Amino acid sequence: MGRLAVLLLAAGNGVRLERSEPKAFVHLGGKSMLRHALEGVLRMREMAQIVVTVPISYEALAREIVRNTPGAEGRQITVVAGGATRQQSVRASLQHLDDDIEVVLVHDAARPLTPPMVFDAIAATVRETRGGVVPGLPVVNTIKRVDVDEGVVLETVSRDELVSVQTPQGFLREDLVRAHIDQDVDFTDDAALAASVGVPVRVIAGDQMAFKVTTAWDLRRAEQLMAAGALETIRVGSGTDVHAFAEDDRPLWLAGLLWEGERGLAGHSDGDAVSHAICDAMLSAARLGTIGEVFGTDDPRFENARGEVFLRATLAQLKGLGLEVGNVSVQVVGNRPVIAKRRREAEEHLAGILGATVSIAGTTTDTLGFTGRGEGIAAIATALLHSRTEGPVST
């Protein structure tokens, strides 16, 4: 399966916004709209090559914004000069794609609050249908066709077959490239351009938050939504970890606590199934993989490492993505130790590390399975993450 690319268009001048700087560089809640849009792209499930088009005089500032955007470090992000029109900017972006790119999403930085799930849905549908895909919303207002010179209503247009189209718009790379070859007509969006060369385009559900900031009123609306907390990103992930009891006399570390007199758990690190399951849940919510993928299963740096080491390292990665932990819940499955005896202590210890509410419960399997036979312990964790609250920044 070929890779994904996102073309982030930020070269528009934004005359109707009544600002001196280009629209994508106008600040919204202390950050440029370009940075907001880039953050949304970076939070997609699938890692994408990203090409950002900006006015030529803003290339240096755009690169600074990219450098300062959480999650951008180590990502393949190219800033290029855009054209005078949308099509020229897309055409310029296509020249910078890697050979193995199969699917291309085209997105307007002027839709800075578009949720990451919209990008994910568009990319998945393009791969499934092998055609063009755009997000859209039903038209809710009554639509009239009028004589533009006289202002006289000619007819009322049925809304049943109308949708209001948004971005990102997704296509197979070969289709988008073909649509741009020797194209002289200036279309209002990429879907119309693709359809003009016979590419089938379908509409899937869009999102109210993907509205376009065109006027000063739109900008105020976006600022009000941010102030009201309507844009907080909520993510939920689950994780599981299992460890057998060790054959030697190592101590038991569980939920970050030392359990005196209890048989320890086998593992390259301390075998803390609770801490490891929490890490897995947090990494899952952030779409970063598993604890084994991120930290390795036999890395010498983590030999006998306490669960706290993995928890703090995972938190550092979440911070880089602008995320923090809201709540964690853990179910411990096993005959021993008796979790209820130190439940409050364990919850307070882990809450102190995570900076979030933690709830832990223990259960048994009524002698069924390896936990019922007393061969080991399993832990199942769920973590809720949300976007971090930050003050204004300079980009």
TrEMBL record:
<keyword id="KW-0511">Multifunctional enzyme</keyword>
<comment type="similarity">
    <text>Belongs to the IspD/TarI cytidylyltransferase family. IspD subfamily.</text>
</comment>
<comment type="function">
    <text>Bifunctional enzyme that catalyzes the formation of 4-diphosphocytidyl-2-C-methyl-D-erythritol from CTP and 2-C-methyl-D-erythritol 4-phosphate (MEP) (IspD), and catalyzes the conversion of 4-diphosphocytidyl-2-C-methyl-D-erythritol 2-phosphate (CDP-ME2P) to 2-C-methyl-D-erythritol 2,4-cyclodiphosphate (ME-CPP) with a corresponding release of cytidine 5-monophosphate (CMP) (IspF).</text>
</comment>
<feature type="site" description="Positions MEP for the nucleophilic attack">
    <location>
        <position position="159"/>
    </location>
</feature>
<dbReference type="Pfam" id="PF01128">
    <property type="entry name" value="IspD"/>
</dbReference>
<feature type="domain" description="2-C-methyl-D-erythritol 2,4-cyclodiphosphate synthase">
    <location>
        <begin position="234"/>
        <end position="385"/>
    </location>
</feature>
<comment type="pathway">
    <text>Isoprenoid biosynthesis; isopentenyl diphosphate biosynthesis via DXP pathway; isopentenyl diphosphate from 1-deoxy-D-xylulose 5-phosphate: step 2/6.</text>
</comment>
<dbReference type="InterPro" id="IPR034683">
    <property type="entry name" value="IspD/TarI"/>
</dbReference>
<feature type="binding site">
    <location>
        <position position="276"/>
    </location>
    <ligand>
        <name>a divalent metal cation</name>
    </ligand>
</feature>
<dbReference type="InterPro" id="IPR036571">
    <property type="entry name" value="MECDP_synthase_sf"/>
</dbReference>
<feature type="site" description="Transition state stabilizer">
    <location>
        <position position="23"/>
    </location>
</feature>
<protein>
    <recommendedName>
        <fullName>Bifunctional enzyme IspD/IspF</fullName>
        <ecNumber>2.7.7.60</ecNumber>
        <ecNumber>4.6.1.12</ecNumber>
    </recommendedName>
</protein>
<dbReference type="GO" id="GO:0046872">
    <property type="term" value="F:metal ion binding"/>
</dbReference>
<feature type="binding site">
    <location>
        <position position="370"/>
    </location>
    <ligand>
        <name>4-CDP-2-C-methyl-D-erythritol 2-phosphate</name>
    </ligand>
</feature>
<feature type="site" description="Positions MEP for the nucleophilic attack">
    <location>
        <position position="212"/>
    </location>
</feature>
<keyword id="KW-0479">Metal-binding</keyword>
<dbReference type="GO" id="GO:0008685">
    <property type="term" value="F:2-C-methyl-D-erythritol 2,4-cyclodiphosphate synthase activity"/>
</dbReference>
<comment type="similarity">
    <text>Belongs to the IspF family.</text>
</comment>
<feature type="binding site">
    <location>
        <position position="373"/>
    </location>
    <ligand>
        <name>4-CDP-2-C-methyl-D-erythritol 2-phosphate</name>
    </ligand>
</feature>
<dbReference type="InterPro" id="IPR018294">
    <property type="entry name" value="ISPD_synthase_CS"/>
</dbReference>
<dbReference type="GO" id="GO:0016114">
    <property type="term" value="P:terpenoid biosynthetic process"/>
</dbReference>
<keyword id="KW-0548">Nucleotidyltransferase</keyword>
<keyword id="KW-0808">Transferase</keyword>
<comment type="pathway">
    <text>Isoprenoid biosynthesis; isopentenyl diphosphate biosynthesis via DXP pathway; isopentenyl diphosphate from 1-deoxy-D-xylulose 5-phosphate: step 4/6.</text>
</comment>
<dbReference type="GO" id="GO:0019288">
    <property type="term" value="P:isopentenyl diphosphate biosynthetic process, methylerythritol 4-phosphate pathway"/>
</dbReference>
<dbReference type="InterPro" id="IPR026596">
    <property type="entry name" value="IspD/F"/>
</dbReference>
<feature type="site" description="Transition state stabilizer">
    <location>
        <position position="364"/>
    </location>
</feature>
<feature type="site" description="Transition state stabilizer">
    <location>
        <position position="268"/>
    </location>
</feature>
<feature type="binding site">
    <location>
        <begin position="241"/>
        <end position="243"/>
    </location>
    <ligand>
        <name>4-CDP-2-C-methyl-D-erythritol 2-phosphate</name>
    </ligand>
</feature>
<dbReference type="InterPro" id="IPR001228">
    <property type="entry name" value="IspD"/>
</dbReference>
<dbReference type="InterPro" id="IPR050088">
    <property type="entry name" value="IspD/TarI_cytidylyltransf_bact"/>
</dbReference>
<keyword id="KW-0456">Lyase</keyword>
<feature type="binding site">
    <location>
        <position position="243"/>
    </location>
    <ligand>
        <name>a divalent metal cation</name>
    </ligand>
</feature>
<dbReference type="InterPro" id="IPR020555">
    <property type="entry name" value="MECDP_synthase_CS"/>
</dbReference>
<keyword id="KW-0414">Isoprene biosynthesis</keyword>
<dbReference type="InterPro" id="IPR029044">
    <property type="entry name" value="Nucleotide-diphossugar_trans"/>
</dbReference>
<feature type="binding site">
    <location>
        <position position="241"/>
    </location>
    <ligand>
        <name>a divalent metal cation</name>
    </ligand>
</feature>
<dbReference type="Pfam" id="PF02542">
    <property type="entry name" value="YgbB"/>
</dbReference>
<dbReference type="GO" id="GO:0050518">
    <property type="term" value="F:2-C-methyl-D-erythritol 4-phosphate cytidylyltransferase activity"/>
</dbReference>
<feature type="site" description="Transition state stabilizer">
    <location>
        <position position="16"/>
    </location>
</feature>
<dbReference type="InterPro" id="IPR003526">
    <property type="entry name" value="MECDP_synthase"/>
</dbReference>
<feature type="binding site">
    <location>
        <begin position="268"/>
        <end position="269"/>
    </location>
    <ligand>
        <name>4-CDP-2-C-methyl-D-erythritol 2-phosphate</name>
    </ligand>
</feature>
